[in-house]
Amino acid sequence: MTEAQRIFSGIQPTGYIHLGNYLGAVRRWVDQQSEFDSFFCIVDLHAMTLPWDPKELQERSVATGAMLLACGIDPTQATLYLQSHVPAHSELAWVLSCIARMGELRRMVQFKEKSKGETESVGVGLFTYPVLQAADVLLYRAHGVPVGEDQRQHVELMRDIATRFNSQLGEVFVLPEAWIPAAGARIMSLDDPSSKMSKSANRPNSAILLEDKPEVIAKKIRSAVTDSGREVTASPDKPAVTNLLTIYSVLAGESIAAVQERFVGKGYGDLKVALADVVVAALSPLRERYEELMADPAETARLLAIGAARASEVAATTMADVRRAAGLVPPA
Ligand code: ATP
Ligand code: LTN
Questions:
Q1: Is 200 part of a structural domain of the chain?
Q2: Is 219 annotated as catalytic?
Q3: Nearest-CA residue for atom 13 of ligand 1
Q4: Alpha-carbon distances of 176 from 136, 149, 155, 289, 307, rounded to whole Å
């Protein structure tokens, strides 16, 4: 039997996991964990690239672990851990920062968006963020990187960095591929369909959180912006309705055409009521499991430590090859 291919993905503990994270990434991790040798990392070091509150970071790191477990990540199948527990991530990030180029980092859309033009005063870590991300994946020689559409450019960059390292210093790294879902790869904010649903938007009605109670979900969907016209159809001139139809379609497991068919002769209000039911049905079991897990955060911490031990072993093998290729003298 051939060994299972390896996959790696990460999520920042910058806030609360939302429906975009779930549909674009986490839901697929759960499906993929039995087929692939899976590494899922809570990237706490990445969460320090914009100003942060230490107490919140600590709380959100464990809570993110609990939510991933509640979503169905199974620690007996997948390796789930905190990035800062495996120091090799930071070590490899340094080596790769000597391979990556200023010009290629300057082209990163996420850097442009998150620095909001203040490129002189933001932290250096925001600029080198994609180098740490490259280290995350390359450290495990992962083939697949299941992510949402916003991460395509970062995965392209890690391929370029790996290719350069391999050709300059020797074949050490596997070239990873972005695995982006056909549907749900880019869920938009409910209050602004031109911006992606995001943890750091800090607008209460923009994102549905996985831990939202049914009445909160219904209220957020009721207050979602819609488009002009009345027909419930997906089209480029109806970005808000298209977004709601996409969420419905992915969660209900029906094509957009089939969902549209349900709303012929009905209006946006009908779509919102039905969508709230679909979202509540999908998220309620997650919220309930999450609440149970949050009653015992020490158990989540224990599971994360097991993941870190396994990740450290794999990382150590790659780092030995990296050091050798780079000409760093092994300790005598
Ligand atoms: P932040 O707002 O702090 O940047 P985020 O909401 O973008 O956070 P991340 O932790 O950076 O979330 O991303 C985790 C995963 O969720 C990534 O694979 C990312 O591509 C995916 N993702 C994030 N937002 C969306 C979205 N709106 N639609 C689909 N996938 C998304
Ligand atoms: N940058 C990603 C989070 C992330 C990640 C990774 C995703 C950090 N390291 C490695 C995939 C693989 C984000 O902002 N969504």
A1: no
A2: no
A3: 11
A4: 11, 15, 7, 33, 22
